[in-house]
Specification:
It is a single chain. A hairpin with a 4-residue loop joins strand 7 (167-174) and strand 8 (179-188). Helix 5 packs across helix 6 (108-114). With 244 residues, the chain is of the alpha/beta class. The longest helix is centred in the last third of the chain and has 14 residues, at 209-222. The radius of gyration is 18 Å and the shape is globular. Strands 2-1-3-4-9-8-7-5-6 form a 9-stranded mixed β-sheet. It is built from 7 helices and 9 strands; from the N terminus they run E-H-H-H-E-H-E-H-E-H-E-E-E-E-E-H. It has a domain at 6-115 and 182-222: Rossmann fold (3-Layer(aba) Sandwich). Bound molecules: zinc ion. Zinc ion (ZN) binds at residues 102-103, 154, 200.
Length: 244
């Protein structure tokens, strides 16, 4: 039997304490709701971390023990220290998975991993989002129908300034007419990254069962492939056969 995945859920945890609308939906923070939801979906080893903790709760020790890191941030992207971003980046290259949520598209870590501006068009009107499954055979789409809907969400519209995803799982349509690549998979080094769009803080999106299901699938997909062994090191080597 394989060992349980170690999951760390990182949340900025600012809006919940500074906007009463958000505080009412997520009184203990988005991270607490996600942790509870993932526990109910069978993940046993979950910890949370937030911006205001020492080293934002992401010490080297915590990251070394993390298989998959979830990331929700918005207003305080620039308050995340460059040292911690470099540490997370290095761990992804080593094989740690990441699930980047909603406005995390504009986080320092996602911009560093993609190497692009990561800007989007947006509108906060609480309109319907229809999320189409465009790659039904993908592990992250398992258990889903052709599409699912969220009645009230913020709109993100194309062009999403990111590299072409290695795999595109979801494409969103919004009532106002825009579309958006809302489920993007990337591989950087040995690490897998899944960007999943929904989750604006003034709507109860993370209580939605389908959204939780997708995040759980995303965690399983992003889990390190080489869980129990280090790959052979890249070092200076003697030839296997004589070279002359
Ligand atoms: Zn938002």
């Amino acid at each position: 039997m394989s060992k349980p995945l170690n999951i760390t859920i990182w949340n900025e945890f600012w809006h919940e304490r500074n906007n009463p609308v958000v505080g009412e939906i997520y009184p203990n923070g988005i991270h607490a709701v996600l942790a509870d939801a993932m526990r109910k979906r069978g993940f046993e080893s979950i910890r949370t971390a937030t911006l205001d903790e020492p080293e934002h709760g992401l010490s080297q020790e915590v990251l070394d023990q993390t298989d998959v890191l979830l990331w929700w941030g918005h207003k305080k992207h620039n308050d995340v220290s460059d040292e911690v971003v470099a540490r997370v980046h290095a761990r992804v290259l080593q094989g740690m998975g990441m699930v980047v949520l909603h406005s995390g598209h504009y986080s320092k870590i996602f911009k560093r991993l993609t190497g692009t501006a990561c800007t989007v068009n947006w509108r906060e009107d609480g309109e319907r989002e229809r999320i189409w499954v465009v790659t039904p055979e993908h592990p992250i789409a398992q258990g889903l129908d052709r599409y699912f809907e969220l009645e009230k969400e913020e709109m993100y519209g194309e062009p999403f300034e990111v590299p072409a995803p290695d795999e595109l799982v979801f494409l969103s349509w919004f009532k106002g007419g825009e579309v958006f690549r809302s489920g993007c998979c990337y591989v950087r080094g040995r690490g897998r990254i899944f960007y999943f769009r929904p989750g604006h803080e003034t709507f109860p999106t993370y209580y939605d069962q389908t959204v939780q299901h997708v995040i759980a699938n995303g965690i399983r997909w992003a889990a390190p492939v080489m869980m129990d062994r280090e790959p052979p090191a890249n070092v200076k080597r003697d030839p296997i056969e004589p070279t002359d």
